[in-house]
Amino acid sequence: MKVGVILNRVFRIHHNPLLAYICNQLGSTDTCVLIIPKEKFGDEAQLKASFYHGTLNAFINTLNHYQIQTNVMDYNHLIAFCKNQQLDKVVMASDIMSYHHESYDYPHQKQRFQEAGIKVEALRVQHYFSPRKTFNNQGEPYKVFTSFYKKWRPYVIERHRAHYELSDISKIVEPAYAPTQINDSHSGLTEKEVQQQWQSFLNNDIQNYESNREYLPEVLTSQLSIALAYGLIDILQVFNDLLHGYESNESNYEAFIRELIFREFYYVLMTQYPETAHQSFKEKYRNIEWVNDKQQFDQWKNGKTGYPIVDAAMQELNQTGYMHNRMRMVTSQFLTKDLLIDWTWGETYFKDKLIDYDNASNVHGWQWSASTGTDAVPYFRMFNPIKQSERFDPNALYIKQWLSTLNHVDSHLLHDTQKHMQLLKQQGIQLGVDYPEPMVNHQYSRQRVMSLFKSL
Ligand SMILES: Cc1cc2nc3c(=O)[nH]c(=O)nc-3n(C[C@H](O)[C@H](O)[C@H](O)COP(=O)(O)OP(=O)(O)OC[C@H]3O[C@@H](n4cnc5c(N)ncnc54)[C@H](O)[C@@H]3O)c2cc1C
Question: Which residues are in the Photolyase/cryptochrome alpha/beta domain (predicted)?
Fold first, then answer.
C-alpha cells in the first residue's frame, strides 16, 4: 500500500493529524509520499504571496532538518504526480478555509482525485467542531451565533492531541521525486515564532483582552488569525491552553474563547451553506441594486475616501496585509452602505490583501456588514464613520500612524474634516488639495440605504 499525504496549508511539524496519520500506519502501510501543492497568487496579492512562500520555505526546511522530504508542485501537476506514483489513496485535510483560490479546497480537490480513480481520506485538522454534527435540536443547521455558542460552548473541553516521533515518520516517508524549489521570500512565520507569540499573548495581553480588542493604535490582540490560516498552530492546543489559564481571569478568557467559537460558527455555516460564498445568506437581499461605481471603488481601495479613519485602515491593509477587526467592520460598512458597492467586491479585495484571509470569516464578516448575512447587523444600524472615529480613535493616533500627511494636525480636527475645513486649512491641510474631501455625504448615503433596504 502506498499513501500520499497532502500537507497543503498545514505548515506545522508538531501535533499535526496528517503526520500522526503516517505514524499510525507504520506496519500496515508500506510507504508514504508527502506532497505540498503550491498555491498561485496574482499580482494584486504580492504581500500575501511573499508571506506564503516564506512560511512554506521555513516549513520545508524544518522537515528537511528531520530528514523528512516533501514533493512540492503546482496544483496542476498534482493528479499526474499521484498517478505516476501509483498511490492507492491520498489523505488530506477537509477543513481548511484559507486557500487563496476556491479550487484548492477540499470539495474541488476530492472531485479531481475521484475522477482520476484515487481514493481520498479526509481528516479534521484546522477546526474544533464538525459541521456534520453541529445541528440544532430540530436537526437543522444553526443560523444564529448565540444559539450555536450556548449549545457548543460546554463541549470545549481539554482534548487529547496528536503525538508522534518525527524519527518514525522519516522511516516511512519516501525521498522527494519533485524539486522543492520555492520562490525566495524574507517574509513569513515559523511554527516556533508562532508558539512564542502565543505564549507571550497568554502571559500578557489576554488579561485585558476585552478592552484591548477595541484599542486601535497598536495591535494588542493575538494575531492568531495568521497562524491559523497557515496551520502553524493546532486549534486543540489553543483551546487547551485557554482552559488551563481560564480561572485566572474568566471574563477575558471567555471573551477570547467566544471569538474562536465565532470562527468555528462561520466555518460550520460555510460548509453547510457553501453557496453563501457568492450570494447573500438572506434570500430577500439577493437582488439588491448596488451602485457599483468603479471609480469610487478605487478611491476606497487606495484609501482616498476623505474619511481619515477609513483611509488609515485601508493604508494599514495595503501596507501590512492586516487590518484591525473594528476597522474591518468600519471599512466594509463604508463600502457596502455609504457607497452601495456589492459586498463581493470588497470580499475579493480583502482576499487579495489579507494575509490571514479565511474564506468563511471573511465572507460572513462582509455579509454581516452588508446586512445580508446570518446574524447580520440590521440595515438601519448603519455605522457613522465620523462617530466610529471619535469613539475608537479619540486622539487620532491610529489615523496619524497611517496617514503621515496629517501628523502635525490637531487630533480633534481629524474625525469630521468637512466641519473643520477652515481650521484644517490654517494648519496646512487644504481639503481637495492636501487631503481628499469626503467622497460622499454620510447623511445622504444613510437615507439612500434606508429606502433601498425598506423597499426589498
Ligand atoms: C469584513 C470582515 C472581514 C474579516 N475577514 C477575516 C479573514 O479573512 N480572516 C480571519 O481570520 N478573520 C476575519 N475577520 C474576523 C476578525 O477581524 C479577525 O479574525 C481578527 O481581526 C484577527 O485578529 P486577531 O487574530 O488578533 O484576533 P483576536 O481578537 O485575537 O481573536 C482571536 C481569534 O478569534 C477569531 N476571531 C476573532 N474575531 C472574529 C470574527 N469577527 N469572526 C470570526 N473569527 C474571529 C480569529 O480566529 C482570531 O484569530 C473579518 C472580520 C470582518 C468584519
Answer: 1-128
> Using 50, 70 and 90 to split pLDDT, how confident is the model at 25?
confident
Provide CB contacts within 8 A for 23, sequence distance 6+.
Answer: 164, 165, 168, 169
The verdict on whether residue 145 carries a ligand-binding annotation is no
109 lines ligand 1 (CB under 6 A): no
Instruction: Look over the chain and give the mean of its residue pLDDT values, rounded to a whole number.
Output: 94
Instruction: Choose the residue to mutate in 325, 349, 350, 355 for probing ligand 1, maximizing ligand atoms within 8 Å of C-beta.
Output: 325
Instruction: Enumerate the β-bridge partners of residue 41.
Output: none
Ligand 1 atom 16, closest CA? 325
Cα of 270 vs centre of ligand 1, distance in Å, is 15
**What CATH code is assigned to 192-277?**
1.25.40.80
- Helices 385-392 and 325-333 pack at an angle, to 10 degrees, of 160
pLDDT (tens digit per residue) in 128-185: 999 888 888 888 889 999 999 999 999 999 999 888 999 989 888 988 876 666 777 7
Looking at domain 2-125, its CATH superfamily turns out to be HUPs (3.40.50.620)
How remote is the CA of residue 311 from the centroid of ligand 1, in Å?
A: 20
Burial 95-113 (b: 16+ CB within 10 A, else e): bbbbbbeeebbbeebbeeb
CATH of domain 283-455: 1.10.579.10
**Strand bridging mode 71-74 / 89-93:** unpaired
| The three three-digit cell numbers of residue 133, written as one number | 454534527
